[in-house]
């Protein structure tokens, strides 16, 4: 990460590092947000003596490139995989997910349709992946249209129906979700624990808790016991509705029924206590997790941080952050929350300390993390450091949001630094128009 852009391969050559599938896969996993830097490492590793990229390595770099919309390079790699007979269903499922996330619906469908040309026969798993990609990107109507057209070719299973039910739930369109649920039963496809969980989640989000309880009773009649996920949904919903007694009762009922609380249920309970301003109780839950040997995760940390920051308790938030990073691994949101907190309070030095700590932990910043710090620097009229971060962001192949680039542009014009603005604009134009190949 500290190398000049064109010096990565040279530095790696001098490092004495020897490529192995395990090392390459781990580096690519860590650099999943680093865009072109990860791709440069991938290219270097592929040229090493007695080394061949694994399918997992190809998949990791394809995901990374698709995330920054370097689709041309992505297809070049897919063609390379074809020549090496490494393509499989998962390759195309990854591409469909990434296209859908970028709201490229036609390209998503094209990827499914082109599989046979690459000698990979689409099956029900691929069909489900196509529907899932479209549903998760809020294109449920297109997913439903494809399902109606192709359901005779790919006989739907429980997962197919669950994907569509969840898609209509996200819309949100509760009547349509109910309709697909009834169609599933009419087609003699018995709902499984996943389907039941999705229906409970949809109904709770729609404020129909009583109907969700009926689904749980239906489950139990079919010898399907509620899982910790279903209990976590109920606890979370009661928390949102400020029904803290019901949330606690549900948690106790879960334990009484012999279902062990996992981190998701504890997180829901912590969130419920925060919602009703009972921070002391939330801390007690955290201590109980320790006693029960349930390890908190980044979500646990983020719930507490968001609550404290919302109440302007920034000192307490920083204490929680320092405590939590010793017992769980922060995620991109954790670092972004802290950087944003310090930036908005005008403490740029502390924002940069968190940034440096994040990099020391070998965590590659995401688009949002970059944007938050650049916005904070612009707010504090620190154009020089904002420009350095913007350049790093672009060189990593990450296209900055229009609002963030616009703020920096305005600051540079105010400070009469049009030459720097022109330099950054040229770099951005190159990133937009051409894949970042050396």
Tell me the fraction of residues in β-strands, as a range: under 5%
The tally of helices reads 25
Helix content class:
over 70%
The string of secondary-structure elements, in order, is HHHHHHHHHHHHHHHHHHHHHHHHH
Over the alpha carbons, how many angstroms does the gyration radius reach? 25 Å
* Biggest sheet details: none
User: Total number of β-strand segments?
Assistant: 0
**Backbone structural class:** mainly alpha
Overall geometric form: globular
Which parts are unreliable, with pLDDT below 50 for 5 consecutive residues or more? none
Ends: how far apart? 17 Å
> What is the residue-mean pLDDT, rounded to a whole number?
93
Keywords: Repeat
Family: Belongs to the PPR family. P subfamily.
InterPro entries: PPR_rpt, TPR-like_helical_dom_sf
PPR repeats: 88-122, 123-153, 157-191, 192-226, 227-261, 262-296, 297-327, 331-365, 366-400
């Amino acid at each position: 990460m500290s190398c000049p852009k064109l010096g990565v391969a040279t530095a790696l050559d001098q490092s004495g590092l020897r490529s192995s599938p395990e090392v390459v896969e781990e580096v690519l996993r860590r650099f999943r947000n680093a865009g072109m830097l990860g791709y440069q490492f991938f290219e270097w590793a592929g040229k090493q003596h007695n080394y061949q990229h694994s399918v997992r390595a190809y998949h990791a770099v394809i995901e990374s490139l698709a995330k920054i919309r370097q689709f041309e390079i992505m297809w070049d790699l897919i063609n390379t995989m074809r020549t090496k007979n490494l393509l499989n269903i998962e390759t195309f499922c990854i591409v469909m997910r990434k296209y859908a996330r970028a709201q490229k619906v036609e390209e998503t469908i094209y990827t499914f349709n082109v599989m046979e040309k690459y000698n990979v026969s689409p099956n029900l798993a691929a069909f489900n992946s196509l529907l899932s990609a479209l549903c998760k990107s809020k294109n449920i109507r297109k997913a439903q249209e494809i399902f109606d057209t192709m359901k005779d070719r790919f006989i739907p299973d429980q997962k197919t129906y669950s994907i569509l039910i969840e898609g209509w739930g996200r819309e949100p369109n509760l009547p349509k979700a109910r309709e697909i649920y009834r169609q599933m039963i009419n087609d003699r496809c018995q709902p499984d624990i996943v389907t039941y969980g999705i229906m409970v989640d949809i109904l709770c989000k729609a404020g129909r808790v009583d109907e969700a309880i009926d689904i749980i009773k239906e489950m139990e009649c079919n010898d399907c016991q509620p899982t910790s996920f279903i209990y976590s949904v109920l606890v979370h919903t009661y928390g949102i509705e400020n029904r803290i007694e019901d949330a606690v009762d549900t948690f106790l009922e879960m334990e009484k029924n012999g279902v062990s609380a996992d981190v998701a249920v504890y997180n829901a309970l912590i969130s419920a206590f925060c919602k009703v301003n009972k921070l002391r109780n939330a801390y007690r839950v955290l201590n109980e997790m320790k006693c029960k040997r349930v390890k908190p995760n980044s979500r646990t940390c983020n719930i507490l941080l968001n609550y404290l920051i919302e109440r302007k308790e920034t000192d307490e938030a920083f204490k929680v952050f320092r405590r939590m990073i010793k017992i769980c691994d922060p995620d991109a949101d954790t670092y972004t929350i802290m950087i944003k907190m310090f930036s908005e309070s005008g403490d740029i030095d502390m924002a940069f300390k968190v940034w440096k700590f994040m990099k020391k932990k070998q965590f590659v910043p995401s688009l949002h993390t970059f944007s938050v710090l650049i916005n904070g620097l612009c707010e504090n009229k620190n154009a020089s450091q904002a420009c350095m971060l913007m350049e790093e962001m672009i060189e990593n192949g990450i296209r900055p949001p229009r609002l963030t680039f616009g703020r920096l542009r305005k600051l540079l014009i105010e400070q009469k630094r049009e030459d720097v603005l022109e330099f950054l604009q040229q770099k951005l134009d190159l990133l937009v128009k051409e894949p970042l190949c050396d």
